[in-house]
Design a protein that fits this description.
The relative contact order is 0.06. The chain folds into 4 domains: about 160 residues, PAS domain (Beta-Lactamase, 2-Layer Sandwich), CATH 3.30.450.20; about 100 residues, Beta-Lactamase, CATH 3.30.450.20; about 60 residues, Signal transduction histidine kinase, dimerisation/phosphotransfer (DHp) domain (Helix Hairpins, Orthogonal Bundle); about 150 residues, 2-Layer Sandwich (Heat Shock Protein 90). It has about 600 residues and is an alpha+beta fold. A 6-stranded antiparallel β-sheet has the order 2-1-6-5-4-3. Strand 1 and strand 2 form a beta hairpin. It is flat and about 120 Å long.
């Protein structure tokens, strides 16, 4: 098959570019000239209609229809004016110049109520009956100075046939100039490409000989431009290639030694390290990776993570990190251990690239944070014990009133023990105050002790349903409407069902109590799946009550902090601890007078 020469290709290319540029410039010139002329006519028409409106305003005010008719006929004497119609404020025709009409809008018909009742200026482009060309149909309101009230409308038909004649003449002139420019440019491009292509043909022949191993090939080009510079650089390149070939052979042994050293580094690194090839299979697996993942290297090499460890949540997190080839990824994940528990791993990935930027694999670097996490838990427990003094002061304040009431009844007992009304009040008040003290102590113990959690597969919809059923009397009493948007098929969470229900109960109860005059309680759920992060379920609980002051938002989870009458300030503190003990988190957003949103985040249940 015969190939098209470079000279023909360049000539054709330059010719096409010249045609495109010339026609584009010509088209833009004609278009801009057309738009400018039409816009100028539009402004002239609006100004003319405005002057008619100003002149006829008094006639409208005085209902002088003869004067209006004279104004219309006088304005229509302009050869550019097709017709003039004056309407009263109800949109009925008051005066008409008598010639031409707007075919698109029905000029002599009454104005629509929308058009007659607005102060907006309307400009329509269409054909005018009685004339051979297009025109502008302009409607301008007539207002009285000082009042701004609309007394009528002026409708003006402006002829555009002379403007379109000028546009047609300009188009033919531009087209002729473009045609001359195209032929001249094409001839110049043919001469230019011929001067370039002949030296390039010599260069191609020399390149073929070099590719066959003849590094002594040289070419001589004397043009005094970039083509000669290209030939000189080609001659220099052939000599450099000859030198590089010798140098590469000398470096092969050095590369082999460096590879051996790199293998030793990978095996000896203190973090787990895995390398993946472009097909997603494991290419390297160091000793620390074997130890942390409880997997021998011979079982992992040459296989994908799914083939080695199965389709687990941890492998899914790893796969999501490897999908992003534009940046590095980091994540913390739970890795199943042989003893039935799990390890906390911190994992980071990076893309392995060639010198030209092509991705050829991935590096996975990870470390075992299990012992660090256990240490952090011990530190948290120590911090809670250190805060016990502060909590004791708050506790003393909260139990002072119940103890005072009990002490008063005990002191009065010897004197009034025979009075039935006293005994009835004693039997009612003293147990109630004792229960109040006991509940305070139970909540305080929940803050400082580590609970024995039964972490299992928990469905959020079940916990929310139990809470709403328990609080149904309180919800109905306050006239609160529940907007429930919990997906029954949402993925289960890893939590203790009893403790999770208690946390949700505390938040829902606060939300209901924040709406004494009724309102909407919103409860919804969704799955949050961000690449590089552990998949979680979000539970959102919102109300449209009185909200929390901004200055209190960072204190609501502190023990004994409350701005609610009769509150102990322990409910949200206990709720926050319950969620944190289950590796979750809780956030709050609130605006005074608009309501509060609590969001609980819990990890999705992991299949081991």
């Amino acid at each position: 098959m015969r190939r098209t020469t470079l000279q023909r290709k360049l000539t054709l290319l330059f010719g096409v570019i010249i045609v495109a540029v010339v026609l584009t410039v010509g088209g833009i010139t004609v278009y801009q000239a057309r738009e400018m002329l039409i816009e100028q006519a539009r402004r002239t028409g609006i100004a003319l209609a405005g002057s008619i409106a100003a002149a006829a305003s008094n006639d409208f005010y005085n209902y002088d229809y003869i004067g209006l008719e004279q104004k219309a006929e006088e304005a229509a004497r302009d050869p550019e004016v097709a017709y003039v119609i004056l309407y009263d404020k109800e949109g009925q025709m008051a005066a008409y110049s008598g010639q031409g009409s707007a075919a698109l809008s029905g000029s002599t018909a009454p104005l629509s109520p929308e058009t007659a009742g607005t102060l907006q200026i309307f400009v329509l482009d269409g054909f005018i009956q009685g004339y051979s060309g297009r025109g502008l149909d302009i409607i301008v309101p007539v207002t009285m100075a000082g009042t701004g009230a609309r007394w009528g409308s002026v409708r003006l038909g402006l002829r555009l046939d002379r403007i379109y004649s000028r546009i047609s003449l300009l188009t033919w002139i531009v087209f002729t100039l473009c045609l001359v420019g195209v032929f001249a440019g094409w001839a110049a491009s043919a001469l230019f490409t011929k001067r370039i292509t002949i030296p390039l043909e010599n260069l191609v022949g020399a390149a073929v000989r070099v590719s066959e191993g003849d590094f002594d090939t040289k070419i001589e080009v004397v043009t005094g431009d970039e083509v000669q510079e290209l030939a000189d650089n080609f001659n220099w390149m052939t000599q450099e290639l000859k030198k590089q070939r010798i140098s590469l052979e000398e470096n092969l042994d050095e590369i082999g030694r460096l590879k051996h050293f790199s293998d030793l580094v990978i095996l000896s690194i203190t973090n787990g390290l895995i390398t993946m090839d472009r097909d997603g299979n494991i290419a390297a697996f160091n000793r620390m990776a074997e130890k942390i993942l409880d997997t021998p290297a011979e079982k992992a090499l040459g296989k994908s993570p799914n083939q080695v460890w199965g389709d687990t949540d941890a492998v899914s997190v790893m796969a999501s990190l490897l999908q992003d080839e534009d940046s590095a990824g980091e994540a913390k994940l739970r890795w199943p251990a042989k003893d039935g528990g799990h390890r906390i791993l911190e994992m980071g990935t990076a893309v392995i690239r060639e010198g030209d930027g092509r991705a050829v694999g991935h590096i996975i670097l990870f470390s075992d944070l299990t012992e660090k996490k256990e240490l952090e838990d011990r530190v948290k427990r120590a911090d809670r014990l250190a805060a016990l003094g502060t909590l004791a002061a708050g506790l003393a304040h909260e139990i002072k009133n119940p103890l005072t009431a009990i002490r008063t009844f005990v002191q009065l007992m010897p004197e009034r023990h025979e009075r039935p009304d006293f005994l009835e009040k004693f039997n009612r008040t003293v147990p109630r105050e004792l229960d109040r003290v006991n509940n305070l102590l139970e909540d305080l113990l929940d803050l400082v002790r580590t609970p024995t959690l039964n972490i299992s597969r928990v469905h959020v919809a079940d916990c929310v349903g139990q809470v709403l059923e328990t609080l149904e009397p309180e919800i109905e009493k306050r006239g609160v409407v529940v907007d429930l948007a919990i997906d029954a098929d949402i993925q289960p969470v890893s939590a203790d069902a009893e403790y999770l229900s208690r946390a949700i109960f505390n938040i829902v109860l606060n939300a209901v109590q924040a709406m004494p005059q009724g309102g909407t309680l919103g409860i919804s759920s969704e799955v949050r799946n961000v690449p590089g992060e552990e998949k979680t379920v979000l539970i959102n609980i919102s109300d449209d009550g009185f909200g929390i002051p901004e200055e209190h938002l960072d204190q609501i989870f502190n023990p004994f902090f409350t701005d609610k009458e009769g509150g102990t300030g322990l409910g949200l503190a206990v709720t926050n601890k319950i969620i944190e003990d289950q590796d979750g988190s809780i956030t709050v957003r609130s605006e005074r007078g608009k309501g509060t949103d609590f969001t609980i985040s819990l990890p999705v249940f992991h299949t081991r």
